[in-house]
Amino acid sequence: MWKTPISRLRTIAIAEAISYLVLLCIAMPLKYWGGMPDAVKYTGWAHGVLFIAFCGALALAILPARLPLVFSGVVFLSSLVPFGPFLLDRRLRAYDRDLPIPAPRSREEVAG
């Protein structure tokens, strides 16, 4: 599933975007209209973890995928906007197609 750094970034970006939408569209109304502050507490915590994972995946994908610095900034900023990662997924997929899939390493290479 995560054969390249971009595929990892795309998967985490989609999960982070879904958690952001759940936070905004479900948890926030539950907190303010339904009197359930725990909805934001737990959803916000999960979203925060996914956002940090997204930032780490982006940092680890920049060099191997040869992402331009400006495009990397756009990818980061898209995570701050609802639906942003969904809109950039097609462009990330294009970078993913250009990356070679690393060959599996043999036991002798791993052992040294």
Protein topology:
Layout: H1 5-34, H2 37-65, H3 69-78, H4 84-98, H5 107-111
Helix pairs in contact: 1-2, 1-4
Please provide a written account of the structure.
It is a single chain. This protein is mostly helical. Helices cover 79% and strands 0% of the residues. It has one domain (5-99). It has 5 helices and no strands. α1 (5-34) runs antiparallel to α2 (37-65) and α1 (5-34) packs antiparallel against α4 (84-98). The longest helix has 30 residues, at 5-34. It is elongated. The model has no long low-confidence stretch (mean pLDDT 88).
Low confidence ranges: none
Q: Count of DSSP helices? A: 5
**Multimerization state:** single chain
Q: Level of helix content?
A: over 70%
* H/E series: HHHHH
Indicate how many domains the architecture comprises.
1
Q: How would you classify the helix and strand content by structural class?
A: mainly alpha
Largest sheet entry = none
* Beta-strand share of residues: under 5%
Q: How many whole angstroms does the radius of gyration measure?
A: 17 Å
Note the gap between the termini.
Answer: 26 Å
Number of strands: 0
Q: What is the typical, i.e. mean, pLDDT? A: 88
Cα shape: elongated
